[in-house]
Amino acid sequence: MQGLKKDWEIQPAQEHHELKDYAGALPRWCPGCGDHSALNAVRKLCYEKQLPPERTVIVSGIGCSSRFPHYMGTYGFHGLHGRAFPVACGVKSRRPDLHVFVVTGDGDCCAIGAGHWVHALRYNMDMTVLLLDNNIYGLTKAQTSPTTRLGEHTNTHPGGAMIAPLNPLTVALGVSNVSFVAQTVDWNPGHVYSTIEAAHAHRGTSFVRILQRCPHFTSHVFEGPLRDPSLLLLMEHADGVPMEPDKAKRFPNRVMHDPSDLASARAIAQREDIYPIGLFYRNPDAGCYDDFTTRGLAQTQAEKQAAIRAAIDKFAIQGA
Amino acid sequence: MQANPVEIPVDSSAKVVHQHIVEIVSDSGEGAQTCGQIFADLIARAGHGIWTVEIIPAEIEPPKRSRAGASGNRIRIGAGKVTNAGDCADIVVAFNEQVLYSRIDSGALREGTIVFVDGSWLTSSDERIVEQYREALADFRQRGYVVIPLPIVEECLKHADDVRKGKNIWVLGLLSAIYDLDRAPAHGIITQRFSKKGEATARKNIDLFDAGYEWAVTHVEQRFRIPATPHTKPMVLMNGNQALALGIMASGIEVCSMYPITPATSTSHFLAGAFEQTGGIVHQAEDEIAAIGFALGCSYSGKTAVTITSGPGLALKTEFLGLAVMAEIPLVVVVVQRGGPSTGLPTKVEQGDLMAALHASPGDAPKIIMAPATIEECFHFMITARKLAEEFRGPVMVLSDANLATGQQPFAKPEFDPAWLAAPLDFSPWTSGTPALDWDEKTGLSQRPIPGQRGGEYVLTGLAHDEFSHVAYESSINQRAMKMRSRKLAVLNSAMKPPKVHGDAEGELLVVGWGSTLGAIEEAVDHLRTEGLKVSSLHLRFLSPMEPGLKDIFSHFNRVMTVEVNYSDDVGDPYITEETRRYSPLAQLLRSQTLVDVDCWSRVPGSPLPPGAIEKQLLRKLQEASCKA
Amino acid sequence: MREQLRTFHLSGKGLDEFRPTSPMRPVLSEEVLKALPSGESFQPEPLASLHAAALAAELAPARAKFLAALKQAVAQLQDLLSVDDAKRSPPGTARISASLGAEAQRFLAVDELTGAWKRPASPAMDDTRRGRCAASLAVLEQALAAARPESIIFSHDGACAEALAASHRQLGEIVPVLRALRVAALEALGSYDAATHDEVLARFDWQTAEPWEIAALPSIVVLETPERLAHASLTAFSILLRSGKPVQILVSADGLSIDDLSGSVTDIGTLALAHRGAFVLQSSVAAREHLAQGLGEMARTLRPAVAVVSVATSKEDWLETSLLAHSKAFPLFRYDPDRDGGWWQRFALAEPDAAFKTLTPLDALTARFADQFRIIPGKAEKDQLELHEYFKQYKTAPPQVIPFLNAVDAAGNPHRLAVTRELVHIGFDRLRAWEMLAALTVAPVETQTVEPAAVVSIREDAAKDAYKQVLAMLTDPALISPAAR
């Protein structure tokens, strides 16, 4: 026998998970709600990658978007309005073996949760974030959200929203240490899946904004791009989110954009005349806070106990 | 090269006292606190009991020679154990006469207090300063203090170039001589403290110490000797925040999540360093809410975490606290209380957050609340807190305060027991069919699945839910769930021992307290008891659930009152009647719990209640009672 | 004189009075002298310590990783078993009391609590699983406590055979540890499936291990010399090279190992090459970068590895050692069997520096083989040829002239040295050996070579006759002579 040969690797038990293993309660979203698309994509991702349901955690805030965890058969944390990010970071902090997803909405993430959102991008812990953006507060019945378009009539601004909306993409791309920003649209399930797949594969906080139809309150908002793909700008690149060539052909407006080019990403993200979809930016080398939070996990009991005793001894009164 | 230290002859003229209070005050940055810390260390090593209080200026950069800028330490030395900061100081060393006024305003001095003042100001080139100095000293003498000016600057310049450094060590030498302390330990501590700055600096400081010592020997006639009891077992000396931190480490907690807030932050500073050795992390979050959110997430995925804050931070954390109760996730929340309301007095003690801790969350969110009364309890209670949090599935709040945080007291060195550590995470598969909140019908207690346990998948939610953590759509579920969460506190109460009464089990007056007032209350009570008065005290460690048997204990006393450091209306003030009077927080709780007409006396001076002041109030209460009788 | 010289050249005898008495040194150009590494800083460093340093540096990460893996596996199994302990025998009041901290007794009646607290909703491990975890833990704890020397050295007689046996043993002993590591990893995830994994682990052997796990083992090192290898240990050496086991062999070659002047040079390096499956480094302390690079690569390999290194044991030998390396007498090469492809991809031969190109393989040998040289008195004659030219003209047969070497004596006076035939043949042989090795480095070229028609026909004719003859003998046994039967 000459040298080492690679035998079949010892893998964890090939317990095969069915798609139904990832299903939780029956979704109670309205028919036609874009959240269904995100749910299907995440379930499919879990199935394709065979993520153990017991080691997958979906963390959400409050809102229609945040009902998401209940509809998955994994562990879930349906927490407080705007506070999904710190919880998700805490969940991941000492459990690097968990697959963590954050599902949030435009109010949950960009209004009350904005502070946590910015810092979570900076911490860049290994998790996938889905911002389900329907441009409105749906659950609480049609209040203006930070992403509501100028002039839209809502229950809190019946005369029409009067402040320019926040652009979550430019905000995200402006945060230091951000490592992954992408956008997709709920009515293109293939693209949604490819985007979430790329997001999950990236090590760091992968921020994905999904423009999502709300048939109940904002059915007109995304009517245009739904019918007319020329209102979308398809970002393409070998390193970007892949799309089959025959599907890509259906987009009249396409641009070759290198996801490692932050300046170009920002320029595209700023555009108000068109909805860019695809991968804006990816930086695999951005520092991950997980490297710090997992410190000491490998320490033995003996080492830990000796260190505790030593710490107490430092306060001993000599001569006692 | 060190000449042989001067042999101090045993001074038979030294006055033997059983306790003494020394204060060292200066402008901030002059090192009075360091002097106090080292002095406390020396006293403790010599076998005396001590209790220290930091004197902290209210601002970061207060003006020099101002009343508001006093910075330093009070050290109470005792023959036996010392449990509180005491009443008036016996000796005060002031680096300038203006900071002394802040101590006078606080009521820290009495007639006969020996006041050492830096006399160098008399020869200042600034006439205003000379004027202030002269006026002040005349005033001090008029008040009856024994005033002794010290030529600190002149003496220090003999050994150091920069007079701003070194005064505190010179004074340390002076005090060591007055209290007849052995020099060698002081030299050792000085060498160790200044080792980082080089051997020359350490040597210079030793010279300064010896200079102060020898000056006292030749120029100061006052000598005090306090009998020492050599320690029979190993002892440690630390402040409450350090004790909290060590307790956190010893309990096996690996994550401390915080946001900077006075006076809690020093615990996290200590942990941030110490955790490097024991494999934990301090997470500094972007705000108080994120801090508790992070801790809760960590607890959710298996390892109980701790978050540390003070009153204003608690206010922000209340929504998450409610979620922790609702979702039954273990969490340890430490609140180091400070002066309120609002931003209040960040560096000063108060016991103002009891009600907030109990109630400040939407709806009914019963949780366990503990309050350590000593620095030793700050250590041990963290272990109890973590264990109770895990077994009772919920948050446990530990209320400390600024007095415990910065004060120091020696106590028996904790012998680390591996049983204190959290158990390793259990990833074995969850028995199929068992609910995520498998409430025991009687106790409401349940085990919880953690991510990694196959078959245990559930979605935690703050919405009303059933035992499977499914959102509750039926009306009866809400009632049942609340019952279960409330029941757990009753179970803990049933496992508690009734509190011990300090003094006789029956009498005229019972004083109830909680937190850092323990020592002062007991000292006041003990003193009154020696005069034949029938007063006893009781100190609560658990505020929620309340400790059992109180109504019965109270029934053996004619009157019951609380003594606290927080606000209550005083009887006799305009508009204050039986109806309008607002009672102090513990009194309110006790009244509602026991239906006994519990009275209260409380103050918010921003400093610990002296035993003398408490004694005066108890006496007044007893006299009122005898008048009415 | 000419006769005498010729006699000397052909027989090695005669002209004894012209034997060089003081040490001679070949004439070296300015360029060469500048390019020669300085012998001033030369410290006769034992080859073993250079090699040990290379091993330590290359393998340190693997060793650290292995130690960390052991510790983590131990921690994981300890945790698993202690959680299981708590389920099997629920902790008593004393333990629960202790777990509440030292002050709890003052306030809490622990008996009441113990009664109220729930039992875990997941059952204890079954006995098989428990046994497996406990056994793996025992193995790992032992491995963690065991001493881990960096290398085990064999240098006496029979070293090769003993080293091979030691390697067998070492690999056999590590297999249970590696198995236990895998059990720990699977059990920590709760993913151990007896149906699949029992069988997989049963057939686990050292070859299924991760390379870094094998690299983390103490290195087994053999110290040899060409002389001993050539005679006493050759069989064991060959067996070792064919074994596939991770053993490192260091051969310190002091000068050119010329057995006797009949022409055989103990070429251990080329011999090792022929084993195809072993890593071979041939280098010299005079070629510092080459040696350092080679030792580093050798440290990384998990195959049997040989380093034949030309060493100088004293400062005086420094010049000879340098010239040996640069004159092609001692080729410097590296053969790495782990690289895919043909010889030209696996084999790298160092080209001597341009300055050294005119050196012959014999330039170095003037001191050691003084007896094979004679100073030629008088001026140049037609039937003498400088050695460099001589080798150039030596195609199928040696030129009929007297080969000489240009040399200088200690005083700096130039001389011509006549060389014996034996030594010349050895030199020629070294040159040929180098050229054959050089040919291995040439990538195959996709061209059609056209052979001369005459050569083709000779071969074909020969083939035809032999073919006919052998075929006849095969078909008619009667044709096979009785002697051959």
Quickly list its features.
heterotrimer; B: 629 residues; alpha/beta; Pyruvate-ferredoxin Oxidoreductase, domain 3; Rossmann fold; 3 domains; seven-stranded mixed β-sheet; six-stranded mixed β-sheet; 23 strands; 18% strand; disordered N terminus; C: 485 residues; five-stranded mixed β-sheet
Give a written overview of the molecule.
- The complex is a heterotrimer of chains A (320), B (629) and C (485).
- Chain A is α/β, with parallel strands linked by helices and 320 residues long.
- Chain A has one domain: Thiamin diphosphate (ThDP)-binding fold, Pyr/PP domains (Rossmann fold, 3-Layer(aba) Sandwich).
- In chain A, 29% of the residues lie in helices and 16% in strands.
- Chain A contains 11 helices and 9 strands.
- Chain A has helices at 35-48, 84-93, 106-112, 114-123, 168-173, 189-201, 223-227, 245-248, 262-269, 290-293, 301-313, and strands spanning 56-60, 75-78, 99-105, 127-133, 180-185, 205-211, 232-236, 254-256, 275-282.
- In chain A, strands 2-1-3-4-6-5-9-7-8 form a 9-stranded mixed β-sheet, with helices on both faces.
- In chain A, α1 packs across α6 (189-201).
- The radius of gyration of chain A is 22 Å and the shape is globular.
- Chain B has 629 residues and is an alpha/beta fold.
- Chain B has 3 domains: 15-225, Pyruvate-ferredoxin oxidoreductase, PFOR, domain III (Pyruvate-ferredoxin Oxidoreductase, domain 3); 236-420, Thiamin diphosphate (ThDP)-binding fold, Pyr/PP domains (Rossmann fold, 3-Layer(aba) Sandwich), CATH 3.40.50.970; 501-628, Rossmann fold, CATH 3.40.50.920.
- In chain B, 38% of the residues lie in helices and 18% in strands.
- In chain B, the strands form 5 sheets. In chain B, strands 11-10-12-13-15-14-21 form a 7-stranded mixed β-sheet, with helices on both faces.
- In chain B, β10 (255-258), α9 (265-278) and β11 (281-284) form a beta-alpha-beta unit.
- Chain B is globular and about 85 Å long.
- Chain C is an alpha/beta fold and 485 residues long.
- Chain C folds into 3 domains: 2-29 and 359-440, no CATH class; 47-77 and 133-356, no CATH class; 453-485.
- Chain C is elongated.
- The two termini of chain C are 59 Å apart.
- The model of chain C has no long low-confidence stretch (mean pLDDT 83).
- β2 of chain A pairs parallel with β17 (459-461) of chain B.
